[in-house]
């Protein structure tokens, strides 16, 4: 059985910026996506496609997951992009932006399969859910085709899609708060704009055996925001998070790696349940808490994030 991809940190880089792409290949990120879409000006689209093709063959990507974000389904260049890149062995997946329609996913899957050429298997697809319609259809999109292996949440475009008044990618609007009663002095509680879309995407991903990747924290110079948004995604059960600057790689990765305390507890819990099994029991108490097989499944998933780093 093939081990699942380790994609705790997913570094985005414009495909036409050669130096940035080279740095991304050498970075500590688990995964990289070269962007042909929003990060590339219209006049640079053709050059970006050729740059991505050259980078896939020229750079040493190590064990990274390497993907390319296509232009939109209604773009005149998307089929050419798939045909140009789909046969290159080092390409692991295409990221499909603004995924909304099962018919579109099926069409793109067909193009990817046709472009595979002599590859042992076609590149896979990772769907970027970044519109209201995409989120409404996320369950059917997750099950749309066997080539679909991951769902990404596009936090910036999603916020724009629903009309949210947020000027910062990945952050809730400052006015999105619950105000309590006058009798209590009108206490306010900040609310999370992304709690619902994150959970819905995550449930769809888990229901169909896909990875779930959170969108980026746009405030890349803010280490507190970077670490906090990564910790939220990791705590929810996401497999990773997009990052838009190399400085975000380490704090984001660290949020997904179990701490020394978690590792120690995991070892105690597994040992205790193994001992319970030998005594004919299916549950045991560890540190004052009940541990059963569900806990062990959660622990083993947590351990899978250790990787090499």
UniProtKB/TrEMBL annotation:
Keyword Lyase in annotation: yes
Limits of the HpcH/HpaI aldolase/citrate lyase domain: 9-246
Gene Ontology MF terms: lyase activity; magnesium ion binding
Keywords: Lyase, Magnesium, Metal-binding
Cofactor: Mg(2+)
GO biological process: oxaloacetate metabolic process
Record keyword Metal-binding present: yes
Binding site for Mg(2+): 130, 157
Family matches, as Gene3D superfamilies: Phosphoenolpyruvate-binding domains
Residues annotated as binding substrate: 69, 130
Family membership noted in the UniProt record: Belongs to the HpcH/HpaI aldolase family.
The name this protein goes by in its record: CoA ester lyase
Native source organism of the sequence: Bradyrhizobium sediminis
């Amino acid at each position: 059985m093939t081990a699942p991809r380790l994609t705790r940190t997913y570094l985005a880089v414009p495909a036409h910026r050669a130096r940035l792409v080279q740095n991304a290949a050498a970075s500590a990120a688990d995964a990289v996506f070269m962007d042909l879409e929003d990060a590339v000006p219209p006049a640079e689209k053709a050059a970006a496609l050729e740059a991505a093709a050259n980078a896939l063959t020229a750079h040493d990507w190590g064990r990274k997951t390497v993907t390319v974000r296509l232009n939109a389904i209604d773009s005149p260049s998307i089929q050419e992009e798939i045909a140009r890149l789909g046969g290159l062995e080092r390409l692991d997946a295409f990221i499909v932006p603004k995924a909304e329609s099962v018919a579109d996913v099926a069409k793109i899957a067909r193009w990817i399969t046709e472009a595979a050429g002599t590859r042992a298997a076609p590149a896979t697809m990772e769907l970027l859910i970044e519109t209201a319609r995409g989120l409404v259809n996320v369950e059917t999109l997750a099950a749309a085709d066997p080539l679909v292996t991951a769902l990404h949440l596009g936090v910036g475009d999603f916020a724009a899609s629903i009309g949210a008044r947020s000027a910062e990618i990945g952050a809730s609007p400052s006015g999105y708060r619950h105000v309590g009663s006058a009798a209590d002095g009108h206490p306010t509680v900040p609310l999370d704009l992304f709690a619902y879309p994150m959970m819905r995407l995550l449930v769809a991903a888990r229901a169909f055996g896909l990875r779930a990747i959170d969108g980026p924290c746009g405030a890349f110079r803010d280490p507190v925001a970077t670490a906090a948004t990564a910790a939220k995604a990791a705590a929810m059960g996401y497999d990773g998070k997009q990052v838009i600057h190399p400085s975000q790689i380490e704090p984001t990765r660290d949020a997904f790696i179990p701490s020394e305390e978690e590792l120690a507890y995991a070892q105690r819990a597994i040992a205790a349940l193994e001992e319970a099994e030998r005594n004919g029991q299916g549950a045991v108490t560890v540190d004052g808490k009940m541990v059963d097989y569900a806990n062990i499944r959660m622990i083993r998933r947590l351990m899978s994030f250790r990787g090499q780093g």
